[in-house]
Amino acid sequence: MSDISDRYAATAGLYDLMAASYRPAQLAALESLLAALRPEAGPVLDLGAGSGLNTMAVLDRVPEAHVFAIEPSATMRALILDKLAARPDRHHRVTVRPEDFFSAPLPDRLGGAIALGVLGHFDPGERAAVIAEIADRLPVGGAALFDLQAPARPQRVEPFEFTVADIGDLTYRAIAEAWPVDEDRMRWRMSYLTLERERVLVEDTVEHEFHHPDPARVSEEAEQVGARLQRLGESTFWLLTR
Question: Tell me, what's the pLDDT at 6?
């Protein structure tokens, strides 16, 4: 998994604003996971915890759960810790690790796992290893929530605006476009703008490569380690169950 800290330094300022548009779908998928959590077996892994939205949701909804959050981006970790600063009563229930997945000291057992917006950062070999490591730590009947970012197969994505928020006198906007690199990878360009009417006050543009694996292949990788991958409706969310 490559160092993604610099990319998320540009993203962090608008991260929760961007999440607002797709947060209802995430929460609906999270509901499917909550029913399968086994907090008595171990902490819930939040891989690529971002700003901590899912970490906080688990702490909200499952009072007995502890969370093991992994977030290698310093700017994103600052957002998690900012949320936790307002809730000292939760400090004993969550650990926020700064390493990447393969460097962090994973718990021997997990009560469940969340990995949203994450699998595409790993190449095929790394992805299979991540699935195997998580599945091996889940109890029988335990589950992990993944997503596979659209489009399902690499293709040209014309520029589109995927978030707009007006806060006071300023407008915050994010624009994305992408190109296929090969049969598995796409190159995404993300632009984040802060505007005062038509005047651009801040503009950050970053590019990154992201894997868009065939869901059938990911299902095979799960089956090889004794797990089952089930799509949640027609969404991009998938529940892995051991």
Answer: 56
